[in-house]
Amino acid sequence: MKGTKWFALAAVVAIVAGALALTGCGTTTPAASTSTAPAKAPLSGSLTIAGSDTMINLAQAWSEQFMTDNPGVSIAVKGGGSGTGIAALINGTVDFADSSRAIEASESAAVKSKGGEAISTSVGNDGIAIIVNSTNKVDAVTKDQLAKIYTGAIKNWKEVGGDDKPITLVSRDPSSGTYTFLHDTVLGKTANYAPSAKLLPSTQAIVDEVKSDPNAIGYVGLGYENSSIKVIALDGVKATVATVTDGSYLLSRPLLMISNGAPKDVAKAYVDWILSPAGQKIVTDQGFVPITK
Amino acid sequence: MTDEPSRRRQGLGRAALRRAAETVVRVLITTSGLTAIAVLAAITVFLVLNAQQAISTVGLLTMITGKLWYPTSTPPLFGFLPYIVASLRATFVALVVAVPLGVAAAVYISEFAGRRTKELAKPIIEFMAAVPSVVYGLLAVAVAGPLVKVIFNLTSGLTILTAGLLLGLMAVPTIVSISEDALHAVPDELRQGSLALGNTRWQTVYKVIVPSASSGIFASVMLGLGRAIGETMVVLMAAGNTMTLTWSLIASGRPMTSVMAGEMGETVQGGLHYSALFVIGLTLFIITFVINLAADTVLERQRSRWRR
Asked: Most Cβ neighbours (<10 Å): which of A149, B34, B198, B261?
């Protein structure tokens, strides 16, 4: 009886192991170090960062490079959305909140009420690309049309020059800075996303959904744009690094790292490095727009 | 070998030790039992206290019957009827999947499978319960979603049906395990008596064995239902999260657990939105509590009937 049970367990383990062996555990080679190691005394310490899902890949790329250059430093990066990061900063559980929107007055006051001060550092720029399925005929919408699409006033693609197909709205959930930014910039403070909008838990989920649904429209940070989906122009301007840099694209915004008080020690070294050419090169590599001085 | 007196002394010492151990264990078990009750009471108080602000500001009825949930707009709206309905839809699909599959598997394992198959199959099915829910979520998005999309000719695979299918699979091990225990507990005399009266094996199963074990099977279904309605990760990933109020199973929906998990992180502690999420939590708690209570009552009634 007992032996058979163990045998069953062993069988399961064997199947799992076999499956793993068949697929082969692919490993990615770490990116070669591009920046020079600091000449000063080696840094040590640890940082915890949480927030924007738009920035998560960027934040991870930064932390990996910085940890490679400074083996004594360990940096933990978590996503969850800008609001989540700022809430964590207020609760004092992180050193930096990554945010793709400005800190709200109420949040800033919450930090102050706990005896601190929220300091925002702009570490890069981002444009929010409006994306549709690659089979969609629509190439451009106006800001007004986009607002009507997301509030549910426009329900069919033919109303904006496409096929006679219902529009599937894809959105982030309210913990996302991008959700709030699009809401405030395009929909207007008093309007609301239509109830039929799919509130997906990550930016990658939006990309996947728009890729598979021919009627979908979504919005993602510039870094998530790829060839499997189609970026459409907004008010005649397409979201690209160039249009975000020169400010001609409407949905441009700074990417922020918010700290409680001015960054010190390791935190300061980290921010300084991010603002340096080496750090800003990673911004470009990740598909975002470097800060202009 | 030890001589007689020392063995007796040893036996006495052992008896005293056993008594002491028994006292310690009894105290420990009593404390654990009371702790469980205390924790449940504390959770209830915690939920009610946190939900109070939203209930008094917005009103419980307004929230439960409201069709729009815009916690961050001005003025904020906190109606979560569509989310209650979405939870019920997903749970319904889960039950439709899990009950026939689970009970049939339990009957097979208990009554028809050979000894070797039985001893292999049960632990393997129980192993399904050890798979993390996020893995089921990935399966829902990567496998069930595309299938649902093709079969029903939809534009998107993120539907209540997709999530419900996986919720059903997740509930299967609970149902199989407990149902099988109940079937196994049916005395052999009943089986032999039924066969001796000329019933076939299958007739024995559905006329004698399953009815005898029905209370256990019912309990397993209720526990499976509890698992399905409270599951979060799968619905968050696969149900599509729309606020639309519909009973369609192939439309998207946002079950209550999904709302709480998706929004709790961004709320300011003590705020109205935070409190409103607790109202959803309280509602879910009451629903599962009522389900369990109903199950218990039915079980108790059945038990007293069998006792006669």
From this structure: A149
Topology of the domain covering A47-125+254-285: D-Maltodextrin-Binding Protein; domain 2 (3.40.190)
User: CB of A178 within 8 A of CB of A100?
Assistant: yes
Tens-place pLDDT, residues B166-191: 999 999 998 999 899 889 888 888 89
**CB contact (8 A) between residue B242 and residue A197:** yes
Q: Classify each residue of A15-48 as buried b or exposed e, where b means 16 or more C-beta atoms within 10 Å of its C-beta.
A: eeeeeeeeeeeeeeeeeeeebeeeeeeebeeebe
CB–CB of A96/A102 below 8 Å? Answer: no
Confirm or reject contact between A90 and chain B (CB < 8 A).
yes
| Residue B179 Cα to chain centre, angstroms | 14
From the list B124, B127, B241, the residue facing A198 with the nearest CB is B241
**8 A C-beta contact, residue B207 and residue B241:** no
3-class SS string, B252-286: CECCHHHHHHHHHHHCCCCCHHHHHHHHHHHHHHH
Largest CA distance in chain B: 89
Closest chain A C-alpha to B29 CA, distance in angstroms = 28
CATH of domain A126-252: 3.40.190.10
Q: A283 near A117, Cβ under 8 Å?
A: no
What pLDDT sits at residue B294?
79
For chain A, what are the domain ranges? 47-125+254-285, 126-252
E strand or H helix that includes residue A200: strand A198-200
Give the tens place of pLDDT for each residue, B126-151. Answer: 888 889 989 999 999 999 999 999 99
What contacts B298, CB < 8 A, 6 or more positions away? B215, B218
Q: How far apart are CA A270 and CA A259, in angstroms?
A: 12
Report the amino acid identity of residue A131: I
Q: Kindly report the nearest CA distance between residue A150 and chain B, in angstroms.
A: 13
Q: Provide the β-strand partners of residue A147.
A: none
- Which pLDDT tens digit goes with each residue over A280-289? 999 988 888 8
Same fold flag, A47-125+254-285 and A126-252: yes
Cis before B75? omega within 30: yes
- Higher confidence at residue A140 or residue B294? A140
Helices (H) and strands (E) in chain A, counts: 10, 10
